[in-house]
Amino acid sequence: MVNNAADVHISQLISLLNISGTSYDAVTASLQKMTDLMRSFETRCDLSNDHWKPIEAIAKECRQFLIQNEISESELSLLIELLRFLRNSCGGLKQNLNYVLGHDDLLNLAKESIGYFIQKESPKEITALKIAVQLFGNILVSSEHSKPLVWDLFFRENKFRHLLQHGDVTIRECAMMVLFNSMSDENSECIFSSEEGHEIIFFVTDTLLFNQIDWGLLFIEQLLNRANFFDCCYNTLPIKHRLLILDIIEERLKSTQEDQSFSIPGALVSSIKNHFLKNITHISEIKESDTEPCETVSMLSILCTASICDAYISLLQNSQDLLQTTVEVLKCIHLLGKESCNVFSSLSDLKYLNDEAREEIASHPLNGFKKNLIRLIGNVCCGCKNDQDLVRKLDGIPLILDCCKFDAKNPYITQWCILAIRNLLENNLENQVVIANISAAGELSDPKLLNEMGIQIHSENGKICMKSLPFAS
Q: Where are the alpha helices (DSSP H) in 308-406?
């Protein structure tokens, strides 16, 4: 039944083409019936060379439209319908794709349509461009061997640059589909090593700032699989785009916790660590109104997330420069917060603040920053005696205890302090003695807090003894 329908429509189309003076509108209406049949995979499989001959004739005619200064409404409708037929017929079917690739009038029509319509602005012209780009997307999906052809057209002829800046977001989405599916090791290297490639990353991330497009996210995630992404591409981007990249990295790391096969290279985490160490030394110099620390804050959050992933914990635990700097920065901002009322000062009560003030606190770049410093310290010290000892030598244990109080600017800081102390004391007698001595001196007077930390202090034969309690799950 399907075969008969295709044969009937093709016969009608051939008859129209053989009649002199047939209107383009009549040809378009007849071709549309064939296009509708191409929605079925079964029908697409049944296309023969005889079916393709009238399609080639129409393509040859349509190519002449593209050398004119202006295309009439009826000519444009026929061209759009032909592009739609080609797009549908190539969907997931290699034999039809090979026919299109092997016949110049069909392939060149698709190429020339992109070049012609890429600067056009009317709705129908934008539709023609979108369908032409989708056609190349179907070509890529149907054949891995078509990547060089598509890459030459879209990258080397600078089509990506224009398409990814197009005013219509659906055009940008289609371009991202082609971009992602055309990636190979060689093409990724072109992105990393060329100015055009860096522009493509800029345009993709610029769109992603305002539109959640999966193809764009997949493209960025694909680039993150390369260990040299930070060295080659990251610093070429403006701050807003860099923050977006960091958000994507953190989301991917969170996925890694559930699926260890879905990860990013350890070298990328190491690059983030190095950038963090370079930038964090200036954190204490910021003022209340500054927003510049956003990047450092995001990197700290990424390191915290990475520190609970099996793939990265050893890398972070072996980076004692990271732990030392984190403890020193925590000490610095904690003391600054005590000296005067500033961005690092604790806020013990929210009930006297209006909604605007609360929103300002919640949205400030440094909201939760001190908590995350403690979170990172606690995580890297878990089961690592070298790191536990380093924190003790840096006087980090009394520091964390002193931070263990409610602070509206650092939600859940008390809980993270408790976990950090627990990890610092586990199987470490020297660190347990530090806590015992603090309690003996009367500097830690809250027994409830000690119990929450899993610590019990008591006197035995005139000596202060400490017992580590089991933690309830």
A: 313-317, 320-339, 355-363, 369-381, 385-393, 396-402
CA pair distance 247, 87, nearest whole angstrom: 35
Please tell me the pTM assigned to this model.
0.86
Tokens of 89: 């017929």
Closest listed residue to residue 2, CA positions, set 30, 39, 57, 29: 39
Phi-psi region for residue 222, left (φ > 0), alpha (ψ -120 to 50) or beta? alpha
Partners of 456 in the β-ladder:
467
DSSP state of 40: S
Produce one character per residue of 221-247: b if its CB has 16 or more CB atoms within 10 Å, e if not.
Answer: bebbebbebbebbbeebeeebbbbbbe
Strand segments (E) across 385-462: 455-460
- What's phi and psi for 308, nearest 5 deg? -110, 10
d(CA 382, CA 427): 10
**252-280 burial code (b ≥16 CB/10 A, e <16):** bbeebeeeeeebbeeebbbbbbebbbebb
Least confident of 23-27, 273-277, 359-363: 359-363
Local structure of 158: helix, strand or coil: coil
Distances (CA, A) of 138 to 5, 93, 453, 459: 24, 9, 59, 77
Give the pLDDT confidence of 154-189 residue by residue, as tens digits.
Answer: 999 999 999 999 999 999 999 999 999 999 999 999
CA atoms within 13 Å, Cβ hemisphere of 48: 6
The DSSP output letter for 19 is S
Helix (H) or strand (E) holding 467: strand 463-468
Cβ neighbours around 212 below 10 Å, total: 8
- What is the DSSP pairing of strand 455-460 with strand 463-468? antiparallel
- Kindly give the interhelix angle for 169-181 and 214-224, rounded to the nearest 10 degrees: 40
Contact of 50 with 10, CB cutoff 8 Å: yes
Give residue 469's identity as a one-letter amino acid code: L
